Amino acid sequence: MAYTPQQVAEWMVEEIRFKGNLYQTDAIQYVREHFGEEFVFVNENGNASLSKEVKKAFRKLHGGRIAWDRDGFMWAWT
Fold this sequence. Notes:
The chain is α+β, with helices and mostly antiparallel strands. The chain is built from 3 helices and 5 strands, in the order αβαββαββ. It has helices at 5-19, 24-34, 52-62, and strands at 21-23, 40-42, 48-50, 66-69, 74-77. A hairpin with a 4-residue loop joins β4 (66-69) and β5 (74-77). It is globular. The relative contact order is 0.24.
C-alpha cells in the first residue's frame, strides 16, 4: 500500500493528541517501519528528519495547536 504525506501527518497528530507529545526519534522510527523510507531523509547536519511534504501537511493539520520543543527534540500539544 502506498501512503501519502497527509496520512503520515495524521498519524503524528493523533499520537500527540493521545500521548501529549511525540519525540522526533520515535516518529522517525515509526514512519520508517510503517509508512516507508520515502518520508525520511538525512538533513545537512547528518540527522534523520521527516520529509518537507510531511512537515507541511502536519503544520496544516494542527493549525498551531502543536509546538516543537527544540531542547527535547519533540512535538507537544499546546
